[in-house]
Amino acid sequence: MEKKIKIGLIGLGTVGSGVFKTLKHFDNVEVVKIAVRNKNKKRNIDGLDESIITDNAYEVVNDPNIDIVAELVGGIDPAFDLIKTAIRNGKHIVTANKELLAKHGEELFNFAETNNKVVLYEAAIAGGIPLIMPIKTILAGNKINKIKAILNGTTNYILTKMDVQGASYEDVLKEAQELGYAEADPTGDVEGFDAAYKITTLATIAFGKRVKFENVYREGITKISPEDMKAANEMGYKIKLIASAELDDEGRADVRVHPMLVPMSKTLAHINYVTNAVNLSGHPVGDITLSGPGAGEFPTASSVVGDILAIASEIGKTDYVLPMMRCNHTETAVPIEIAETQNKYYISITAQNSLGVIARIGKACEENKISLASIVQKEVAGDNAAKITVITELCKEKDMQKVIDIFNNDSAITKVNSLIRVQI
Ligand code: HSE
């Protein structure tokens, strides 16, 4: 009988449990050690031999019998040191750690290559959606220059609920927390960090140039209001948290995460609740959209187990496992500052219903080379406040920011309620 490939798991939470349960169906691999935080926690996992559980993760990475370590706990410390120790000890790595990849990917992959080990991370970006392996293998003949994606299920759930129920961000967040969809501290999701980690690595892989996390522009969804949702709907858009990456003709990368008004004609406008989706544009393939579950026990386990089986299938057959899946970057992408980007904008303004307000808004835009695609003022309410909604044509971010400054200093303008970029 062929030797079973020995697997060590770090983490037996939602993802780790799904991985353990899924791996049981494969005869060529065997989970021989699992590190957990709390050994005494009651776990109802069929077929789990409690004697392989340890609360010392170094027992997994130092175990000479283990061939592949799957790190499923996330964060930088101690995950990074555990992974490096495992690599030094001759193990291949599978990880779902998006933060580690985004912040230390270069060091991690260089270290792995020096030690002739592979690090696979399909589960780190969009959970169960196959992205990394397809981009690195069957799409290898493409020049991918554009990604538009929904990479965070929590925020997509909140935005979908706000849209469907006409409810406020605060109310929907509370409900999502009660249902366990959002964490008690939701910052990582709602402020866009999670999506920014994911687009950093996804853009790096797709463009074949390193994108640095610190160059990724980021805005979250906390300021989106039910009024913005309603206005977007009336104009034929949905509001989504979009992770976007574009490579220009000179090889410069514009990578960002922020809310956008997405036209209903686009697929991403129809991706709802916790579903993720990634639209890639490249040559020669054209446009592809992949969508599916971006988190959860079994969808994420699907990606982790796929990576484990890919490595396991080559161990003992070659001295250089999975060459196409290794890091092949030699360059870092030159970033484009958000101020230099061109966008269309939705602006929601509350103003006094006084003579010439609309003309002043138009003049400020004209003086800053911003052309208006539409301007709408609804009938004035009893408080004499005019709600004005503007959509611009494409213009420079820095010109838009100058106009917002002018609005903020105009005594007839009570408030700029929202400024949201619009997808074209
Ligand atoms: N927190 C993530 C999300 C799931 O809400 O999509 C894990 O990456």
Describe the structure.
Strands 7, 8, 9, 10, 11, 12, 13, 14, 15, 16, 17 and 18 form a 12-stranded mixed β-sheet that branches. The chain has a 6-stranded parallel β-sheet with strand order 3-2-1-4-5-6, with helices on both faces. It is elongated and about 85 Å long. It is an alpha/beta fold. The chain has helices at residues 14-23, 57-61, 79-88, 98-114, 132-136, 153-165, 169-178, 187-190, 193-207, 226-234, 297-312, 357-367, 397-408; strands spanning 5-10, 29-35, 53-54, 68-71, 92-95, 119-120, 143-150, 217-218, 237-247, 252-263, 275-283, 286-293, 334-335, 342-352, 372-377, 385-392, 395-396, 413-422. Strand 15 and strand 16 (385-392) form a beta hairpin. 32% of the residues lie in helices and 27% in strands. The mean pLDDT is 96. The structure holds L-homoserine (HSE). L-homoserine binds at residues 152-154, 189, 194, 294-295. The site of L-homoserine has 7 residues, from helix 6.
Calculate the mean pLDDT score and round it.
Answer: 96
Using DSSP, what is the number of strands?
Answer: 18
Counting helices, strands and paired strands, the structural category is: alpha/beta
Which band does the percent of strand residues land in? 25-35%
Number of helices: 13
Q: Any ligands, ions or cofactors bound here, and which?
A: L-homoserine
Keywords:
single chain; alpha/beta; twelve-stranded mixed β-sheet; 18 strands; 27% strand; binds L-homoserine
